[in-house]
Write a structure and sequence with these properties.
Elements lengths: L1 H19 L4 E5 L5 E2 L2 E6 L3 E5 L2 E7 L4 E4 L10 E9 L5 E9 L13 E9 L2 E10 L2 E6 L5 E2 L4 E7 L3 E6 L2 E7 L8 E5 L10 E10 L14
Antiparallel strand pairs: 1-17, 2-3, 3-6, 4-5, 5-17, 6-16, 7-13, 7-17, 8-9, 8-16, 9-10, 10-11, 10-12, 13-14, 14-15
Length: 227
C-alpha cells in the first residue's frame, strides 16, 4: 500500500503545474473526499465527512487518515496568505494539518522534498500551539511559540503570511510570531492534508476550510467562520 501511495503522488505531480500556477486565490472547502477546491483528491485510511461547528468538514482520526490533493496552491507566489479553519481533538504531540510540497528534478520521494510549506500543531495535554514552517533554496523558517497555547476541542482559524520580507503566523487573527525570511517562490507540486506526505505525524481532528491567496493579507481580511 505504501508503494501505491508513493506512485500516486509522483503521478499527480506531472499534471499539477498548469492548474496551480495561474490561480491567485483558491478556497478549499472540505465537503468531499474526491475533490477539494476543484482539484482531484485521494483519501487513504478512513477520513469522514461530518457537519459540525462552521459546517461541512473532514474528520481525521490521528492514526492513518490523509487526503492527497493534486497541486500546490501557492506555486509561483512571491507573497502569500495561507488560512485554515480546523478543530484539534488532542492526541500525539506533533501533528501535521497541511503539507504543500514542490516537485523536484530528479523526483524526490513524497514528503522528502527540499521545498515545502507546512501548517502543524504541537499538542501538550489538553492544549496546543501553532507551528508554521517553510523551507526552500536559501531559506528555512520555523515559527513556534510554546507559551501561546489554546484549548483542544474548539474551532480555530490559523494563518501564515509573507509580504515580501516577513513571515508571520496567526491564530484567530492574533499575531503569534514573525520572522524576516528571504523567501523565493515555490514550484508547482502537490498537497497532503491531515498528515505529512509520507504518512507520518497524523492530525487528530477536523478541517473545515483552507484559503490560499497570492498576497499578504492583513488580519482584518482573513476569512473566519467560527462557531
Amino acid at each position: 500500500m505504501k508503494m501505491n501511495r508513493r506512485a500516486l503522488l509522483l503521478g499527480l505531480a506531472a499534471t499539477a503545474a498548469p492548474v496551480m500556477a495561474s490561480a491567485r486565490k483558491q478556497v478549499w472547502k472540505f465537503n468531499s473526499l474526491r475533490k477539494i477546491g476543484g482539484h482531484p483528491a485521494q483519501a487513504y485510511g478512513a477520513p469522514q465527512l461530518i457537519r459540525s461547528g462552521p459546517g461541512a468538514a473532514v474528520l481525521f482520526d490521528g492514526q492513518d487518515d490523509v487526503l492527497f490533493v493534486d497541486g500546490h496552491p501557492l506555486a509561483g507566489a512571491s507573497t502569500f496568505t495561507t488560512e485554515l479553519i480546523f478543530r484539534p481533538d488532542g492526541g500525539a504531540f506533533e501533528q501535521r494539518l497541511l503539507h504543500l510540497e514542490s516537485d523536484e528534478s530528479p523526483p524526490a520521494a513524497p514528503g522528502k522534498g527540499t521545498t515545502r510549506m507546512l501548517i502543524e500543531i504541537r499538542v501538550v495535554e489538553a492544549s496546543w500551539y501553532l507551528d508554521a514552517f517553510m523551507v526552500g533554496a536559501g531559506y528555512r523558517a520555523t515559527m513556534m511559540v510554546p507559551d501561546k497555547v489554546f484549548p483542544i476541542g474548539r474551532w480555530y482559524h490559523a494563518a501564515a503570511t509573507y509580504d515580501g520580507q516577513t513571515f508571520r503566523s496567526y491564530v484567530n487573527g492574533e499575531l503569534q510570531m514573525e520572522m524576516a525570511t528571504p523567501f523565493k517562490p515555490q514550484r508547482p507540486g502537490r498537497t497532503s492534508v491531515g498528515a505529512r506526505m509520507n504518512q507520518v505525524t497524523y492530525f487528530n481532528g477536523a478541517i473545515h476550510q483552507a484559503r490560499f491567496t497570492h498576497e499578504a493579507l492583513p488580519a482584518k481580511a482573513f476569512s473566519q467562520r467560527l462557531p
